[in-house]
């Protein structure tokens, strides 16, 4: 009963390093999302995808790239990490755009 | 600019009593609202929703009320249980568009 799985769960990076966060869902959902959660702020949408091969920008897309090569996977990339990207990242999926989203357990990312 | 606001960062309630969590929004075009519950080290899980054509929706111990004129919604939990201790997020959208989330309210239910 996996649902939405995020890897890794924790990561520490140095400024300027790159990395990719992986999100996998086994519910055959069309829509997938990447959010970040920062203290004192709600979840903010970074990028989303409405189906395999598609991506679109959310509220806070700068500094991130995404890819959805397979329906079940949604990757979030940081090309050159900055301390401002220290956050908890959540991936989510839904069967349709305005349906409740299923979330992964998050990735805590620290950039020094 | 925060379009969805939860002005109470925390709330403590005795077990068995009612918990009322509040949420305000600024965009009058929002027509679909959800509440999520989040335990530490886990992702948010969907709790209950309401569309703007209703002013109330119930699911067991959880009831969401929507006051469109005041741009306000609230989540009532009756009776509150210790297992309800979590962070609660409200979210709003214009149907078919992205959700905007509040900052969350941490509920502690005291046994």
Task: Give a structural overview.
The complex is a heterodimer of chains A (112) and B (111). Helix content of chain A is 0%, strand content 49%. Chain A has 112 residues and is mostly beta strands. In chain A, strands 2, 4, 5, 6, 9, 10 and 11 form a seven-stranded mixed beta sheet that branches. Chain A has a four-stranded antiparallel beta sheet with strand order 1-3-8-7, with no helix packed on it. Chain B has 111 residues and is an all-beta fold. Helix content of chain B is 0%, strand content 55%. Chain B has no helices and eleven strands. In chain B, strands 2, 4, 5, 9, 10 and 11 form a six-stranded mixed beta sheet that branches. The chains are: A mainly beta (112), B mainly beta (111).
Radius of gyration of chain B: 13 Å
Major beta sheet summary of chain B: 6 strands, mixed
Number of helices of chain B: 0
Quote the distance from N terminus to C terminus of chain A: 35 Å
What is the helix fraction of residues of chain B, given as a range?
A: under 10%
Strand content of chain A: over 45%
The best one-word shape of chain A is: globular
* SSE order of chain A, one letter for each helix or strand: EEEEEEEEEEE
The proportion of strand residues of chain B reads over 45%
Helix amount of chain A: under 10%
Which chains make the largest contact? A-B, 22 and 25 residues
The number of helical runs of chain A is 0
Residue-averaged pLDDT of chain A, rounded? 94
Question: What's the Cα radius of gyration of chain A?
Answer: 13 Å
| N-to-C SSE string of chain B, H for helix and E for strand | EEEEEEEEEEE
């Amino acid at each position: 009963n996996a649902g939405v799985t995020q890897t890794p769960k924790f990561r520490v990076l140095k400024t300027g390093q790159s990395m990719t966060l992986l999100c996998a869902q086994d519910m055959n959902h069309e829509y997938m999302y990447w959010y970040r959660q920062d203290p004192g702020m709600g979840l903010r949408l970074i990028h989303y995808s409405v189906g395999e091969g598609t991506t679109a920008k959310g509220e806070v897309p700068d500094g991130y790239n995404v890819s959805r090569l397979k329906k079940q996977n949604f990757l979030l990339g940081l090309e050159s990490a900055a301390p401002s990207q220290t956050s908890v990242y959540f991936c989510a999926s839904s069967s349709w755009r305005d349906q409740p989203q299923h979330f992964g357990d998050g990735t805590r990312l620290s950039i020094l | 600019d925060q379009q969805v606001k939860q002005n109470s960062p925390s709330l403590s309630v005795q077990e068995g009593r009612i918990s009322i969590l509040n949420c305000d929004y600024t965009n009058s075009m929002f027509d679909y609202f959800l509440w999520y519950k989040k335990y530490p080290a886990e992702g948010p899980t969907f709790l209950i929703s309401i569309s703007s054509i209703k002013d109330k929706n119930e699911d067991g111990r959880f009831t969401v009320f929507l006051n469109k004129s005041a741009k306000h919604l609230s989540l009532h939990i009756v009776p509150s249980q210790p297992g309800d201790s979590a962070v609660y997020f409200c979210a709003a959208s214009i149907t078919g568009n992205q959700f905007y989330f509040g900052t969350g309210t941490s509920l502690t239910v005291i046994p």
